[in-house]
Amino acid sequence: MGETDGPGFGEVLRGHRRAARLTLEQLAEVSGVSARTLSDMERGRSKGPQARTVTALADALKLDEGGRERLIELARDGRLRDHWTRRSGGLCELPRSVEDFTGRTEELIWLSELVYAESAPGVGVVGLVTGSAGLGKTTFAVRAAHSVRPSFPDGVLFLDLFGMSQQPLTADDALRLLLRALGVADQHVPGDPHERASLYRSLLSGKRVLVILDNAASEEQVRALLPGGGASRALITTRRLLAGLEGVRRLALGPLPLPESTEMLTGILGERSAHDEESTLTRLAELCGGLPLALRIIGNRLLSRPDWDAAQLAARLADEERRLHQFKAGDLKIANAFGMSYDQLADSTRRVFRNLAMIPGRDFDAALTAVAGGMPIAEAWDALDELVDLGLLQDGAAGRYRFHDLVRLFARDRLPQEESAAGRQALMQRVVSWLLRMATMSGRWFEPGYGRPDRPDPDLAVLSSAEEADEWLRVNVDNWLGAMRAPGDSRRRSLVLDCAESMHWFSDRWAHSPHWQEVFTLGAQAAGALGDPAHQATQLNYLAWVHSVPPGDPEAILRYAAEALELATRADATAQIAWAHEYTAEALLLLGRHDEAIKSSSRAAEMFQTIGDINSYIQSNAAIAKCLFDDGRYAEALERYLGLIAVLNDPESGMTPSVVVHSRPLALLRIGSCLGRLGRRAEAITALHEGIGLVDELRASDYRQADALETLASLLAEEGLTDESRRAYVRAAEVFESIGDTASSNRCQAMVTAAA
Question: CA dihedral defined by 482, 486, 491, 495, rounded to 10 degrees?
Answer without folding.
Answer: 10
